[in-house]
Amino acid sequence: MWVKFFTAMNVFIYRLTGGLIGSRMGGQSVLLLYTIGRKSGKTHIVSTNYFRDGEAYLLVASNWGRDNHPAWFHNLMNQPVVEIQVKARKLRVCARAASNGEYARLWESVCSQNPFYTRYQQQTRRKIPIVILEPGS
User: Which CATH architecture has domain 2-135?
Assistant: First the structure.
């Protein structure tokens, strides 16, 4: 419950300040992800940590180590062309799940930057997806 409240507050403040407040949390970079609900068709906005891999943005669908993927992951897989906001800049991106060939390298990279992901993976039976957001789609 507190996670939803905190996320909603961060989205509000992030949007209000153009990312001047809310774009860094706990030493991590944060972006706003605008998805289209796969059931509702409504726009949903979530704040989430991100990492960079060249020009691409990486999102980790850890859902705090729960046994189900976060709703935003399902929405992205259903409608992969979305918008993100990085500070004041909005970008159109296309999302895809990391392939088996690139997953190990990306997983090592994100875990080296945020060790909590290793713990989250140990808490769940599912393989935590890494989503690659490629700009310019």
Answer: Roll (2.30)
